[in-house]
Amino acid sequence: MNQGRLTGIILMVIGLGIAALAGLFLAVRSSQPEATMGGTILGAGLVFIIVAPLMGFGFFLYTKGGQEAEQESIMQKQRQLLDIVKSRGEVGVNEVAIEMGIKVDMVREMVHQLVGLQVFSGYVNWKDGRLFSADAQQLRDLQKCKNCGGDIRLVGKGTVQCPYCGTEYFLT
Questions:
Q1: Sign of dihedral through CA atoms 77, 80, 84, 87?
Q2: E-strand spans in the chain?
Q3: What is the pLDDT of residues 80-111, one digit of tens each?
């Protein structure tokens, strides 16, 4: 559990504790003969002024912490994918998906995210389901597809593709 979620939970528990104690105090106090309805309402209002921001800010931190945890999980998966491809040099997309416990479409999405972040250089043959790690300089000098020998062309920023076999080359 990350720091934001923990802080949010603590603030909400403190808020609930204050509300419970104040509720008990007001219940006991209002049963006494000298207590007035106005005083009880004023006390409840003051407690609300204290408890509402605690609960609201605690809930905000809790939900924000959940979003941060999800983002950290995605970054860990991206790092894991990058480490697998770089350490092995060549790996099957299906193998990576099974090893990481994610879908093949998610692997494809993460490869494109890593290319966008300019941390992955290599190429992918989606038809055969193979990921290759390669030196960016070798790929910059590349004129022909390594898979089928066809001419390659630029299809996006830092991405070239073979129109014949569909192999994508990612330059960083």
A1: positive
A2: 90-92, 122-125, 130-133, 153-156, 159-161, 168-170
A3: 998 888 888 888 889 999 999 989 899 889 98
64, 7 Cβ separation under 8 angstroms: no
Helix ranges restricted to H, 101-160: 104-116, 136-140
Extents of the domains making up the chain = 3-74, 89-170
DSSP string, 4-49: HHHHHHHHHHHHHHHHHHHHHHHHHHHTSTT--HHHHHHHHHHHHH
> Which residue has tokens 């009880």?
40
CB of 132 within 8 A of CB of 123?
A: yes
pTM of model > 0.90? no
Longest dimension (CA), the chain: 96
